[in-house]
Amino acid sequence: xxxxxxxxxxxxxxxxxxxxxxxxxxxxxxxxxxxxxxxxxxxxxxxxxxxxxxxxxxxxxxxxxxxxxxxxxxxxxxxxxxxxxxxxxxxxxxxxxxxxxxxxxxxxxxxxxxxxxxxxxxxxxxxxxxxxxxxxxxxxxxxxxxxxxxxxxxxxxxxxxxxxxxxxxxxxxxxxxxxxxxxxxxxxxxxxxxxxxxxxxxxxxxxxxxxxxxxxxxxxxxxxxxxxxxxxxxxxxxxxxxxxxxxxxxxxxxxxxxxxxxxxxxxxxxxxxxxxxxxxxxxxxxxxxxxxxxxxxxxxxxxxxxxxxxxxxxxxxxxxxxxxxxxxxxxxxxxxxxxxxxxxxxxxxxxxxxxxxxxxxxxxxxxxxxxxxxxxxxxxxxxxxxxxxxxxxxxxxxxxxxxxxxxxxxxxxxxxxxxxxxxxxxxxxxxxxxxxxxxxxxxxxxxxxxxxxxxxxxxxxxxxxxxxxxxxxxxxxxxxxxxxxxxxxxxxxxxxxxxxxxxxxxxxxxxxxxxxxx
Length: 518
Ligand code: HXC
What we know:
518 residues, alpha/beta, 2-enoyl-CoA Hydratase, Chain A, domain 1, 2 domains, 8-stranded mixed sheet, 7-stranded mixed sheet, binds hexanoyl-coenzyme A
């Protein structure tokens, strides 16, 4: 409301002050009491100091339903604008829970859409800070239309600019689908939750008793559903994770990620790698140790680390170059490929490919997980996702086989025949249709059962098969492996090979789009 005694500048200042007060001091206190920050406090943590330019601060809703005409808030519950993270442009929207619970309606959605349009047209990432009670109940269907406008833009922007979603409070109902359409989701333990239907609806429909935290809290989505890529103990840590991810990514799909200067000599050996594979081939080891040895110190950032732990994915730097890593994890379920691992890795491969991040695959895989659970839930379609993702990726991709590379899983894990640019193998590699024991039992069944000492016969035939295939030399002889290398030389080989492949151009047949086995 204008005060007649105000000068034009005083009026503007008063409006600015009103906008900065969000939903009022009481609601800000309530937000803080829940351990949550306000929309603008979050933006200050995200952006480089002094770089935020706010847009649409004076936007208000137009609805008069249910007394909304008497309850106007400047900004309509979302702070939007642009700024810089580590000197690079990003667009941001930050929902303000202190205004009508951060609920989304027509004007609020229009502000977010403007940010998404700017990001797409100017080729820079978007970070969404979500904290909302969902569709603004008083505004009805225009709220739903607003969500759909955002979803549609999320899809248009997908693969063009990186989109990050931080969930810093409630995110329920259809609202969950915007984060789900973006590249990375971050949740805060204890204060954020996501679900399509809340505990009350669940109780009515399925008679299950479940808390919000159990149903859709950070831990649930990090371990059970895989919906979130990162969890953090508090908001500042989640925002920091988002900044780390942005540093690995280019601004858009036309650019490459930044190469950092790396001071150590390229030729440095990592001797620990020479003794990392146990002598007993059935014994597990932690593939993360291999990753840490191969990559630049302290650069490995694991993604979805508590979900489908039989496969490890993440970003790191190798000689300063940003790379994506997909690695079987022998320390969990022997590194077997199952439905969750295939989906997790496939999505990551496509994210890296979309944003020109070269891929390093570390392979030690005994095969696909057998069983009715896997078959009935579609390991065929889901395993095909990973096969598809590697096959269509045009970024430089290098595989290092550290130990087992068996059966169909060998093909799937970025093998030469599905387009790997380079395949290295350690001398400990076993590249075969299956393990020697299983193979001997099948192909020498009659001989073994007819022998006077069947155990000795099995051992003899197992050794025969192992001699032929439980090594990398058959595959190297065929050219499926480019070079068998000493483990401690791997880092140097990879740095040189990725440098050699940096201008790679690979074109596939023109099409509208492929038909990924979704
Ligand atoms: C309008 C809302 C609102 C909403 C909260 N508020 N949600 N106003 N529309 N959806 C308002 C409250 O009236 C209150 O206003 C203020 O925000 C804070 O809410 P509280 O309930 O006091 O906060 P809290 O106790 O922390 O509970 C938060 C909450 C709860 C769990 C989110 O507010 C809630 O259940 N809200 C409704 C959620 C919902 O059903 N949304 C629709 C979902 S369906 P005052 O003035 O008192 O500060 C949906 C479909 C999307 O979103 C479909 C897209 C395709």
